[in-house]
Design goal:
Number of strands: 8
Distance between the termini: 56 Å
Radius of gyration: 28 Å
Strand order of the largest sheet: 2-1-3-6-7-8
Number of helices: 10
Strand content: 5-15%
Largest sheet: 6 strands, parallel
């Protein structure tokens, strides 16, 4: 796998390139030390994976992600950074990176990271992966709680009753007879149900309510 290495730390470039060149499956085809040099290397060299540091002398590694994807859409990008920052990780993946490695944690594993992303996987240090999963789980839990808090107030008791009867296959006239209300009142309840659940048909209303556990 052909690798483009972008890092403003000469010593770090040497360490990473040695690790990559020691593995017969990976080959460093070009190196760069800045955003400007990185752009030039992206234009001039064909590669499969770009390893790029976040802090470059004339900008950020993020600046090269969009540029790389526009010129070489089939190539993959892995951020290599000393910063273990959740926001940076999320931004990197949003910009198209498929890996994020912490330098001090991955000596000897750069070839593995390159091969992982080149073969369709994602490469991220275990500690960061755990933190991101916890963050997503917490966000999902908060969203679920908000939905649960909102749902009971969305439909009135009468509207829930009408919805249950709709699910039972009753017509508006039949619902009106059973609830001792006019057909017009039933249709008003149905319109309110549609509006509150943001649906257009009885089938959609029943499906929405079933998925949300409203009856």
């Amino acid at each position: 796998m052909r690798v483009l290495l972008v890092d403003d730390d000469e010593h770090m470039r040497r360490v990473i390139s040695q690790e990559l060149m020691a593995d017969p499956r990976t080959l460093v085809v070009a190196q760069a030390s800045s955003v400007r040099e990185g752009r030039k290397a992206i234009r001039q060299h064909a590669f499969d994976v770009m390893l790029v540091d976040l802090n470059l002398g004339d900008g950020e590694g993020f600046d090269l992600l969009d540029y790389m994807k526009s010129l070489r859409p089939s190539a993959e990008a892995v951020i290599v950074s000393i910063m273990e920052n959740d926001e940076h990780v999320l931004r990197a993946f949003e910009l198209g990176a498929t890996g994020y490695l912490i330098k001090n944690s991955w000596f000897g594993n750069y070839p593995q990271a390159v091969l992982q992303v080149a073969n369709g996987g994602a490469s991220i240090t275990p500690n960061l992966a755990r933190r991101l999963l916890q963050r997503f789980d917490k966000r999902h839990e908060e969203q679920a709680k908000r939905r649960q808090a909102e749902e009971p107030d969305r439909l009135s008791a009468r509207e829930r009753e009408v919805l249950r009867m709709i699910a039972g296959g009753y017509t508006s006239a039949e619902i009106g007879t059973r609830l001792a209300i006019s057909c017009m009142t039933v249709n008003t309840h149905i319109k309110n149900i549609y509006r509150k659940l943001q649906v257009r048909t009885r089938a959609q209303a029943v499906r929405f309510a079933s998925l949300r556990g409203l009856f």
